[in-house]
Design goal:
binds zinc ion; globular; six-stranded mixed beta sheet; Beta-carbonic Anhydrase, Chain A; 39% helix; 10 helices
Length: 247
């Protein structure tokens, strides 16, 4: 029976090999942080040309953050951000969650036990999960709300890294939060001021994506969390809203 490794070997034999093995210049413009889900093909789904994006994938597109100066506990994440921001000097960082995410489902179900490595890995989402569950709703609504809340959380955690905060303050980088539909590949984009999600497709923007929050604005909490990191010397929420425009 032919399996996927056999197919890869067969494809190698069909490759038309160029005479030169000189690779193109490595000058990506984007760091995309996505989930490991095998149903997503980042370049194909988003239409990236080869060489334009650094891709960092983990379970649930999680950014654990550096909220207590504990980046050494997430050294792979910290190194990826340092490489993207200060070596490759990308212009954008995108956190892209997705629908039907197994990591999000595992966080919501919370049945793996404290010692399970997946449970420990998902610890940065515990408070987010508790907030989503407290708001009620059926399993599907909670999963939808959690997918978006996890992206918001990761975007906030990105800014806890001084290298990212500095780049934002200097206008060198923009941060984006997306959720891609695993089935349709339609992307919902996080509003820079409110933290709510809307379809990236213009003809669908009239349909406000539900976040399982009954349509209530949750921007106040989102902005307050950004402010709580003190990554900009802001005196008011109004000032924060202005600065969110650079995200
Ligand atoms: Zn996933």
């Amino acid at each position: 029976m032919t399996d996927v490794i056999d197919l890869i070997r067969a494809r190698q034999n069909l490759l038309i090999v160029p005479k030169s093995d000189e690779p193109p210049t490595h000058k990506p413009e984007i760091l995309l942080i996505g989930c490991v889900d095998a149903r997503l093909s980042i370049h194909k789904d988003l239409g990236f040309p080869d060489g334009s994006a650094l891709i960092y994938r983990n379970i649930a597109a999680l950014v654990s953050g550096n909220t207590e100066g504990d980046w050494h506990e997430h050294v792979s994440e910290a190194a990826a951000l340092e490489f993207a921001v200060n070596v490759m000097k990308v212009k954008h960082i995108v956190v892209m969650g997705h629908t039907d995410c197994g990591g999000i489902k595992a966080s919501l179900a919370n049945t793996l036990g404290e010692k399970n490595p997946i449970s420990q890995y998902l610890e940065p989402l515990h408070s987010v999960r508790d907030e989503v569950i407290a708001k009620g709703g059926d399993q599907k609504a909670q999963a939808s709300a959690m997918e978006k809340a996890a992206v918001r959380n990761s975007v906030v955690n990105l800014v806890s890294y001084p290298s990212v905060a500095d780049a934002m303050r200097e206008g060198r980088i923009q941060i984006h939060g997306w959720v891609i539909n695993t089935g349709t590949k339609v992307i919902s984009e996080m509003d820079r001021e409110t933290g709510e999600f809307h379809s990236m497709r213009k003809d669908m923007n009239k349909e406000t994506a539900s976040d399982g929050n009954g349509g209530k604005k949750n921007g106040g909490g989102f902005i307050a969390r950004l402010l709580s990191f003190g990554w900009l010397p802001l005196a008011s929420e109004e000032a924060a809203t202005v600065c969110m425009a650079c995200i």
